[in-house]
């Protein structure tokens, strides 16, 4: 940097100043004295003769020296340990050819127009050390300032970025089990916080739905339990109030019927509670649904109405799972069909690729299309033909669908012109050769 600056000044015809932190000397052919010198060279070697060797005259092209032997000046006391004190010193040089000087500039420098000049800059250890210290100090200061600025920018950027998160935290802290209706504001930034807010809102919605379902379930269960209890209590109170006029066998029959109804409802509620808390599973056992359907058809109790119950299947239909749960599922479907069938119930079992498909079809009044999914909700009974008076608890189909889902299957109501047809699809167990 210093060398380039000196060369540029000389080309402009300007004699460089002697006050320089770096020692330098400019010599030229045809001159006994230096064109210019500065730094420690001008201080340690005052006089008329130049210290550095002059460049060769003519057009000879020589490799410039990298070291120069500098004589010792006995009358000079260096102020610094590494100041100019003679010996061999490292130098960097640059030559200025006669053609490099602009018109009239050679005369301003006191050299001949055809003279060649050489610029020497001495590389002293203390100069490099001082430059290193200055550079280190500047870098340290710049680094500290940069670190403070980066920390400040990062702090405020994080504070601004996390404002939506804090708003989400404050709002979710106010959500209670009794009132999960609060929703967080979804920022319009489109980044991860937006996804977080959307996910939290979805979670809160599921909690709200679960809480509403639980409240509805408790209310429905209380209502279902109250009806047979009220009937039972009224029958017993009338019998106790008028014992001499009471038909005790009839009263006992009514009490037994309502007690059985309470028992069935309690068992269904307990089963639903267990299904809600247990994870879906397919046990190690394999159940032949064809054999199960045939056995239930033969063992189904005779009803007050004449019903024909047939099972249309002969080929094995193995499905993995719990035999008791499969029996409860199929029995619920048959009980539901028996309550609403007019004359006939038909069960079919078949295999379809990797599935076992079982259908229970009755010839009753059927189910409106709008209620095809609602009938699987808990405590739901349809009016008229599928009413409370026929003895159901309103939990049979809900339990059947939960059992189907537990075995990784599905239970749906398929459209039919006459009656209702429930289709159960379950994964087919692999044959022994396929395992």
Automatic annotation (TrEMBL):
| Chain ranges of the Histidine kinase domain | 220-430
Statement: the UniProt record of this protein carries the keyword Cell membrane: no
Q: What is the E.C. number?
A: 2.7.13.3
Residue spans crossing the bilayer: 138-158
Root EC class: transferase
Pfam (any one) = HisKA
- The highest taxon in the source lineage is Bacteria
Where would I find the HAMP domain in this sequence? 159-212
Q: Which reaction does it catalyse?
A: ATP + protein L-histidine = ADP + protein N-phospho-L-histidine
Q: Name where it mostly resides.
A: membrane
According to its record, what are the GO cellular component terms?
plasma membrane
Where is this protein localized, as stated in its record?
Cell membrane
PROSITE patterns membership: HAMP, HIS_KIN
UniProt GO molecular function: phosphorelay sensor kinase activity
What keywords were assigned to this record? Kinase, Membrane, Phosphoprotein, Transferase, Transmembrane, Transmembrane helix, Two-component regulatory system
The cross-references to InterPro entries, in alphabetical order and at most eight, read: HAMP_dom (IPR003660), HATPase_C_sf (IPR036890), HATPase_dom (IPR003594), His_kinase_dom (IPR005467), HisK_dim/P_dom (IPR003661), HisK_dim/P_sf (IPR036097), Sig_transdc_His_kin-like_C (IPR004358), TCS_sensor_his_kinase (IPR050428)
Its protein name is: histidine kinase
């Amino acid at each position: 940097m210093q060398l380039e600056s000196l060369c540029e000044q000389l080309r402009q015809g300007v004699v460089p100043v002697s006050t320089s932190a770096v020692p330098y000397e400019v010599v030229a052919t045809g001159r006994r004295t230096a064109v210019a010198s500065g730094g420690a060279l001008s201080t340690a070697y005052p006089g008329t003769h130049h210290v550095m060797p002059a460049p060769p005259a003519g057009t000879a092209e020589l490799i410039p020296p990298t070291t120069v032997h500098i004589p010792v000046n006995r009358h000079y006391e260096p102020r610094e340990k590494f100041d100019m004190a003679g010996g061999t010193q490292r130098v960097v040089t640059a030559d200025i050819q006669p053609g490099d000087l602009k018109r009239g500039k050679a005369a301003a420098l006191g050299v001949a127009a055809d003279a060649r000049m050489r610029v020497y800059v001495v590389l002293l250890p203390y100069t490099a050390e001082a430059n290193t210290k200055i550079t280190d100090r500047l870098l340290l200061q710049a680094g500290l300032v940069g670190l403070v600025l980066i920390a400040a920018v990062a702090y405020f950027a994080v504070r601004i970025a996390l404002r939506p998160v804090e708003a989400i935290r404050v709002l979710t802290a106010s959500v209670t089990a009794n009132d999960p209706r609060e929703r967080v504001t979804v920022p319009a930034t489109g980044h991860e916080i937006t996804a977080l807010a959307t996910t939290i809102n979805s979670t809160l919605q599921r909690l709200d739905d679960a809480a509403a379902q639980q409240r509805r379930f408790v209310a429905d269960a209380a209502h279902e339990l109250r009806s047979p209890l009220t009937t039972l209590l009224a029958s017993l109170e009338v019998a106790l109030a008028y014992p001499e006029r009471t038909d005790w066998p009839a009263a006992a029959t009514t009490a037994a019927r309502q007690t059985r109804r309470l028992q069935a409802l309690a068992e269904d509620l307990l089963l639903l509670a267990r299904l809600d808390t247990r994870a879906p599973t397919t046990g190690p056992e394999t159940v032949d649904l064809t054999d199960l359907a045939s056995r239930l058809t033969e063992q189904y109790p005779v009803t007050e109405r004449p019903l024909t119950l047939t099972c249309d299947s002969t080929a094995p239909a193995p499905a993995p799972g719990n035999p008791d749960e499969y029996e409860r599922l199929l029995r619920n479907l048959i009980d539901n069909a028996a309550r609403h069938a007019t004359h006939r119930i038909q069960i079919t079992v078949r295999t379809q690729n990797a599935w076992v498909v079982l259908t229970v079809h009755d010839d009753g009044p059927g189910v409106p299309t709008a209620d095809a999914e609602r009938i699987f909700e808990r405590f739901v009974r349809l009016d008229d033909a599928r009413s409370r008076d026929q003895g159901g608890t309103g939990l049979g189909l809900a339990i059947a669908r939960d059992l189907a889902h537990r075995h990784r299957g599905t239970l749906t109501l398929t459209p039919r012109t006459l009656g209702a047809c429930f289709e159960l699809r379950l994964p087919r167990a692999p044959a022994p050769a396929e395992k």
